[in-house]
Amino acid sequence: MSVIVSPSLLSADFLHLYKDIEMINNSDADWLHMDVMDGSFVPNISFGFPVMKAVSKVLKKPMDVHLMIKHPENYIQQTLDCGAAIMNIHYEACVHLHRTLQAIKATGMKAGVTLNPSTPVNVLEDIIGDIDIVQIMSVNPGFGGQSFIKSSLKKVRKLKALIENEHCNTLIEVDGGVNGETAPLLIDAGTDILVSGSYIFGSKNPYSTIKSLKAL
Ligand code: DX5
Ligand code: ZN
């Protein structure tokens, strides 16, 4: 299976969002990654449900929603109503993680858990079979265009070993600093899904940049 590419809309041109969604629709991208920030869990604010709902009306690919917000359990229905296919919540933002994952899956969405750079993989060892996707943050969440934290590669390998030991189908997603240099290393370590923002939207030809990631 080739790697899944999920371009992050955070680095798109917000004045011409329709143009960038059309680019995603016509490109080899598999999903569209959307970053919601609350200014409390992370020190930044991005966009919210009304924007996602508008995007979902023209988007022809699965919406991969990354909620960098406190109390994500309060926003399951709204995330579903925005057309999300994947609801990714932070381990650090959710006290009753197992209950919340069950509630997300009951809606038909895929349930993802995201780990900050300082959160070890082993906090998920007892519930890994209940998680559709684990997303490793390879930068501190809140901003696009940051440098890749190299120790994330070791973390991906640890997560891969955990998934194999437990014989489950959990996919590994990596978010932050993904580019032409880091992507091959991440795939080699066991990454299934690459999130990439500034590398794709900041490139001269996003179509060929997406194609080059898919070809790895
Ligand atoms: C950061 C977001 C990322 C961001 C990645 O908090 O979760 O999805 O858009 O941006 P790049 O690819 O530029 O590091
Ligand atoms: Zn993200």
TrEMBL record:
InterPro entries per record: Aldolase_TIM, Ribul_P_3_epim, Ribul_P_3_epim-like, RibuloseP-bd_barrel
Single GO biological process annotation from the record: pentose-phosphate shunt
Binding site for a divalent metal cation: H33, D35, H66, D175
CDD domains attached to this UniProt entry: RPE
Highest taxon of the lineage: Bacteria
Active-site residues, Swiss-Prot/TrEMBL: D35 (proton acceptor), D175 (proton donor)
Pfam families (alphabetical): Ribul_P_3_epim
Binding-site list for substrate: S8, H66, G142, F143, G144, G145, D175, G176, G177, G197, S198
Zinc in keyword set: yes
Catalytic activities: D-ribulose 5-phosphate = D-xylulose 5-phosphate
Cofactor field: Zn(2+); Fe(2+); Co(2+); a divalent metal cation
Transcription listed as a keyword: no
This protein's UniProt keywords: Carbohydrate metabolism, Cobalt, Isomerase, Manganese, Metal-binding, Zinc
A GO molecular function held by the record: metal ion binding
GO terms for cellular component: cytoplasm
EC numbers: 5.1.3.1
SUPFAM superfamilies: Ribulose-phoshate binding barrel
UniProt pathway: Carbohydrate degradation
Catalytic EC class: isomerase
Function: Catalyzes the reversible epimerization of D-ribulose 5-phosphate to D-xylulose 5-phosphate.
NCBIfam families: PRK05581.1-4, rpe
Family membership: Belongs to the ribulose-phosphate 3-epimerase family.
Protein name stated in the entry: Ribulose-phosphate 3-epimerase
Organism: Prevotella amnii DNF00058
